[in-house]
Amino acid sequence: MVGEYSYCPVETKQHLKNKVALCSWSPKTDLIALGLCNGVISVHRYKMVCIWESPATSDPDDITQLVWRPDGKSLACAYRSGRVCLFLANDGFVYQELHFADAVTHLSWTTIDCIPEQTRNDGTNAATFFPDLNCLNTVESDSSLNSGSDMSKFSQLLSNLDGSLTILTIYSCNTLHFYGCDSFELARWHVKPSLFTEQDSKLELLGCRFSACQRYLLILYRWLNMNGETCLELQRIPCDGLVKLGAQVREISLLHSSIRICKELLDKSFGQICTSWEDTILEMDVKFTKYARERLSRNKNWSLCVELLEFILFGNCPASLRKFLVEDWTASSLKRTGTATLKAYESIKTICFQQLQLTLQRLLFHSSILLGKLRDTQRYEPFGISADSAVRLCSTVGSVLQKTQELHLVIEKSVTHLRGFFKWIYVAILKLSGRVLPDDFPQYIRPGEVRKPLELVVANSLKDNADRAKLRNLVNLSEEKLRTTAFPVGLFPYCSRATLADLIQKSLQNDIDSLFGPPTAGDFSRSCFAFEDTVSQLLYCGSTTQFDPTWAFYPLFPVSTTVDTKFRTSVSDTARRSTLFAWSPPRAVDGSADALVLMEFETGSLNLEISLKRTAAVRLDAFPNTLSSKDGSYRLQDFEFFTSELLILLLCRSTNERETVSDSYLPAGDVNTTSWIIMLPIQNILVSSEAIDLANSSTPLWTSAGTSPSLLSCHNLSELITPANMESLPWEAVKLATNGDRSIVFVLFKGRCLCRVYLLERPEPDDAGIVQDNLEEQRMETEAVETTA
């Protein structure tokens, strides 16, 4: 029978220090993510071996949401403070952070796979033109440039863009935000209840999912009406534009992700330059601060630069400087200073020549591709991205590239002069101190005094600067002309007053924000969502105090002729997909058994009302061969879709008899409560159910009295399952998480410090194929009857 499994507990683990707040299985691997109550995220294998754990902070932030990306490569975590962190699944590296004004109460990740085959590609071809950043030579002495650094992680992200389109949905401050490929803000909508828009009540969004056909968005709300009754409302928002413009959305999102990662690499590289420069300044500052403070106290017009130049160029060495060089800055100390300074300069030169220039060239590559696409107004005009902003970004990237090359030339020149300076001052200190001079001393310092103006000494350098200035005058283009779209190819605006820090941290960031920023201040959809065509249906309305319903969505794919579920996700079967939705109404006022409502939505139907293909209700009355009146009522604690055919339920029941349990993990107050895992065959229920007419959207499907005004097809749990569908748990359970593809169930028990992982094995009877064929025939017959009707 469907849902018959044997349960093998593979691991029981007790978290002694922190309680588990949230848990979620990876959709592609056997990894489970646990969100602890102290704000720490930990990822474990199915035997609860910890792979990585996020560092704990001094100010713990409560975790509100935890969700995996559909490909299992990333993990998103939302916090009470409004922060959203995106982790790499293999090592926990935070590659992006999003910040919102209030707590994030909903996260979901969806892969948009309904893109025509002829428009699909494998992503960018940048790897053809640019080497991997990890293949470049790095400075071995700098620990920030090793293989495990942030630079390496971001370069891996840049090379691992697979070309798929994922939509990250975030809800905060009564606003839904949609991000393509984790970073490009595709749409934003301030949510509104559609049934009673005139009321001013607190609205709470419980869930948001794309349908299986990905033509509309389903949103579940909870709110209080004007009579103080708690209501559940289901909204449907058409998003046909997301499917029609899927190829363009994917290309824009991937380019935005590539540009964002390049900007992160530039920030990291510039941070390394700043660190190297600070090391140089710190080394020199330690030597000269005390000496300079004493000289300034005697003469406010004194300059260290002038005094050193007079000593180097003309041989003038005041008594105070002579004393400083002989007593404070000894030859051995100077050698350490010179080594540290030259090493820092070599690091800056390496970063400029390899990391900065290569990243800027790749950033210019992606920006140019984006500019070419935006000029195809017929395909990309709906996104509201200006081609002029892309031109400005390309121009700024060119300016940064020019400034980087200038810095590289300056550093290269400085290294040559610094090496000679430190050699010269080394032998000068030896001479001033009366020590033995090296044999090659004359090649570093000439005896006698030099009496020449400073302009004549540096005449060659000044002449070179004047010649370079004349070259720019020959171009005869002002900065305003260079900022226009008519400037010659290859010329970028140049501002001698702009620093590399201003260009990278301000100009580039401003241009990227201006290019990909929201087109309007309020709601926007970029032609992907039709928020104005929202349709609603009232699911529940009653006098019950505010309750927390359990709910779950699941995409239902057409059954393939093969048993392998891999072939159920083909794009060609998109039109036959449907969406399953399960939710639990509150317990009736008369204390009757809990209930569970199953709904299957019409595939691709965008009528004026929400169309239901099949709907049924299941009363959790009793187990087979068990009297519910004797053993007490069952409470639905949690549930999840295990597969498209099975819904796994977590049921609890309080009894009057105390059970004898010897396990030391069991809390003393839990001996009166028993929990079970139930496999509910939902397809058997839906096949025997019929569609209902939702002519009046304000008529609820369920009321607080436990009745169904819409005449739902009701079933009793005792008639749907057998003892083989049940598994008794040793303690009272409060939450579960499932991975149907790998047949794993995670159960969290009361107290949230104890968990157990079950590995499920399904027996394979000889007539398994016959049962599958009979189920398929029943579905085909039901669909044929509905079509003729």
Automatic annotation (TrEMBL):
**Keywords, sorted A to Z:** Cell cycle, Cell division, Mitosis, Ubl conjugation pathway
Q: Name one GO biological process term.
A: cell division
Question: What region holds the Anaphase-promoting complex subunit 4-like WD40 domain?
Answer: 24-110
Gene Ontology CC terms, in alphabetical order: anaphase-promoting complex; nuclear periphery
Record-annotated Anaphase-promoting complex subunit 4 long domain positions: 245-433
Respond yes or no to whether keyword Endoplasmic reticulum is given for this record: no
Q: Does the keyword Cell division apply?
A: yes
- Pfam families tied to this protein: ANAPC4, ANAPC4_WD40
Tell me what this protein is called.
Anaphase-promoting complex subunit 4
Q: Which organism is it from?
A: Paragonimus heterotremus
